[in-house]
Amino acid sequence: MGFSFKGGLLAAAAGVAIMVGTTAVAQTAPAPTAPTGGFYMANGTRTTNYQTAIASWRADSQFAVDYSKGFLGLEHAYAMGLSGRGQTVGVNDAGVYVDHPLFGSAGKVTGLRTEAVAGYGNDGMINPRRRWEGHGTHVSGTIAGDRVAGQPMFGNAFNAKLYAATANFSAGDFLWYKDAIIDGKIVATQNQNIVDLANTGQVRIINNSWGSGNSLPFNASLPTVLASFNRNYGDFYKPVLDKDVLVVFSAGNGYGVHAGIDAAAPLNDPRLRSNWLSVANYSSFTAADPSTSFCGQTATWCVAGPGSRVISSVPAYTMDRAGILALYPRANYASLYSATTVSALETASVNQFLGVLNAYLNARQTGGPTYNEDAWRREVARQAAAITLVSGARLGDPDGFTSRLAGLLVSTGNMAILTPAFSSAVLQYANDELQRVLNQYIKYTGAGYAAYTGTSMAAPNISGFAALLMENFPEYSTALISDILVSSSKDLDTPGVDLRSGWGAPQMDVALRGPTALRDTRDVTVAVGTVDIWSNNIGDARDRYSAEVKANFGNDIGGLVKKGGGQLILTGANDYSGPTRVEGGLLTVNGSLLRSSATVGGVGMIGGTGALASLTAESGGVVSPGDGVNPFGTLTVAGNLNFKPGSFLWIRSNVNGAAYSRLNVGGTTKIDGGQVILKADNGEWNLRTQMNIINSTGAVTGTFSGAQSDLAFLAPVLTYSTNGVVLTVRRNDVTVASLGRTDNQQSVGGALDVMINNTATGTNRDLSLENALLDASVPAVQGALSGLTGEVHATLGGLAVSDARVIRDAMSERGRSQGGAATYVGNGVSVWGSGVFGNGRGSAHDGLAGFRNEASGYLVGAEKALANDVHVGVALGETRSELRSPRLRSTGRVTSEQIGVYGGAGVGDFQIRVGGSWASADVRTDRTAQLNAFTNALVGDYDGDVWQAYGEVAWSRAVGGTMFEPYAAYSHVEYDADVVETGGDAALSGNVKQKADLLTAGFRTRTVLAGGEGRPRLSAVTHLAYTHDLNGDGPVFDAAFADGPRFLIDGANPGDDVISGGLGFNIQATERTAIELGYTGLYKDEYRDNRIYGRFSVKF
């Protein structure tokens, strides 16, 4: 795709600008920390090599389409993944051709509805009378045009959004002068658009590539400029301040004169200085574009941007220049054809039109019967259109010098002679003639690209630059962004900030490392979780000013106020002289602040391993020497140090104080109160360790009000000398038991307290657990206590008592009535078997830990019918249970071998069943006792016994095909195990016991569903019961450490106050054979148990 070069006669002056490549601004900054995933390559891939990433951008054809992005070093932003995402830039210009592919992404352009009469541009669109107008489209593409494959270029902040306000410029539009000046119709001014865009609350930047001309020399004195630019804005621009918007203005295309009045607005309203930028046009680091206006007295908010032959988006059209010129012969417009510069062409155009006006005045004065006023008005209008069309054709731009010609018609002095009626009519006719010719000789071809030159092109390059900075530093105020932007600049022209190029050319690699100078005390807000690093050396702005600038702005000294919950790290040699105050989050000084007095207060913290001039800690403020890389570092205060009441000194120490953070003070240390907080690593502490936390060359006066530590059982103690403060640690009066949050934790804590206080030191005594406790923090101790209790042993006992129901239920099941007939007929022998599998879940309650368990097992039995309603039997089997408790860091496994005897008899409608069993349990436990570096893997391997005896009375009644059997039962169950663990100092031994007296009431049903009378019979069996433990104490582990007293630990008791229920299906295949499958479960608030079972029975 070809490019058109706007400017015609200007092209010769700007022709070399596009040849300045990116190599002219190659940067040598150290590589920053890579974003997650690596640096961004121009082709969309990622790399760990920073230089490779920026080289890929410099070689990218869209990036290198002209010199502008390389001039500003934008490759450094793109390599970090910055693209303007999340930013919205206001464009106050001639409207945007929104059908251009660079504005095709969703929501790219929003239009502002302005106050304007019909027929003008609005909603960010181009004036329909000036469809060729590419200025606003070009500016918008430079700022934020999308990066689209196959297109020649993209905008500096290509993922930013645009908010466009149409500025219906007078240039090129005769009718504007009639409507706005003569008729007084409302056409929103460009200045009002700034306010309206700010009031949307959606823009952070407003670009203004326009301005009014002036003839002041760029080095005019401040009084001279103020006299010429005197304007009382009042609160007109207050919305800019209220919404904290950055207003960017082109300095103007005055060929070396002073920046325009709008770029200089802060001279009339100093409040605007931090929210305003003025931009000159430089074609390279060594040359200003000839057309540019210079910064002048806007220097302290002025930079040099790239604006020479900048390629960007435009609405494309072709203009038949030859056809237009053929309409107006050289003989009639000789001076226009002979001009060789833009200035000469402008002068010739004005003089030609003055001749036309004078001819009209002469004719009007002469009068006569042939004089026709309307005909003369039409002739003057035709000549105005002809002059602007000839000059426009020579410039390659339909605008020509419309504004100069129209200005002659509406100036106050000229209208007094010409009359408003004459000027109004001529402007209307001239507009009609201009539109007639242009409609014939201009063809609109859609989207295109063109190379434009001017500060109008430099300003949007800076606006896009600012949008990238705002994305990188989203919480920063506009004032701080402005300081970062201007102070990042490469110095041009006179050393320092001068009247020509201001600060110079902004450089992105420098800006991403924070400011290099501050013009005032700035708030620095860093969000929680964010770490910003400023690695530049930061000074006072006035120290960068040239003599002529400093003479008028000598009070521009810097300072900062750290706010927000995040961290700001300063690594440079900073010599700004304003205050440094920390009111929120962390300010880490790893460089120096040798001219700024530092204060920390509110909820702020200051730390680092660098040097401060002086430091005052106010109430709430924390001084924390060291940083994340070196937490045991030294923070130096070259001058005086003062701790005020309510302040804090945070000291970080490793084990035993071998390394710790501290303060070195070159002046005096005044302590008016405050607290010392020791954040210590866990380990083995020597209670005689001394830490010199403050070393002061000058005298130390006063004392802290106290000292605290996160160590659970050690307290910091402070002593003072003439030149220092020393911290030691001693045993405090906090007990382990007092930190327990459950009964079991308090019980084991009491035992540990006895052990800690036991001063006996036998040759075989292991003190590793006691030492680990003494050196631990409160949260660490509280987190470890559950793992020290051995609660798993008690809970395994509770599960063993609950699971005794498996053999009890299987034995009591024998001998129950079936359909009203006796189960046992004759004196035969029966054999039976059952199997069960399931799992349970106990939730944490009453201070006991939650757990999960699984159980499986089998039983076989044989019985003898002694009479029709009397039977006796024996049962054998094995069960296996497993338990897991993450909170206790414990697992357990119990394998039990069981034997039982049982019997039953019928008495009328009642049945009596009795029995008893014994189980030998093989218990294996694994648990971890851990407290910081202390870890014991503990193994328990021991035996236990489960005894039980039970009795049951049931009453049976048949109703239809269902047999109902209410029943009541009593069971006495005992568990007894001698626990032995090995594995370290936290190993326990002792005895687990539980005695349960279980009273159960419930009912069972058996319903015949099908079969019978010689055929297999299918029955549904159900049961529902409630069990209460009359004893109710649950399992208790009477435990002890090897060198400690006994203590009691409770365990879960799943079998108490529990509802049991089940459903099964029984198939009586023959008179002698039956099979049953079903489900049974236990239900209570803190325990659920679900199992499936199968049974068979064969009679002989």
UniProtKB/TrEMBL annotation:
Membrane-spanning segments: none
Instruction: Output one GO BP term.
Output: proteolysis
Q: Where is the Autotransporter domain?
A: 824-1100
Q: Does the keyword Transcription regulation apply?
A: no
Write down the top EC class of this protein: hydrolase
Single GO molecular-function term? serine-type endopeptidase activity
Gene Ontology cellular component?
extracellular space
- Asked if the keyword Protease belongs to this entry, the reply reads yes
Question: What residues sit in the active site?
Answer: D93, H135, S456
Signal sequence, renumbered to the chain: 1-26
InterPro entries named in the record: Autotransporte_beta, Autotransporte_beta_dom_sf, Autotrns_rpt, Pectin_lyase_fold/virulence, Peptidase_S8/S53_dom, Peptidase_S8/S53_dom_sf, Peptidase_S8_His-AS, Peptidase_S8_Ser-AS
EC number of this enzyme: 3.4.21.-
Q: Which domain of life is it from?
A: Bacteria
Its keywords, alphabetically, are: Hydrolase, Protease, Serine protease, Signal
Family (UniProt): Belongs to the peptidase S8 family.
Instruction: Supply the name of the protein.
Output: Extracellular serine protease
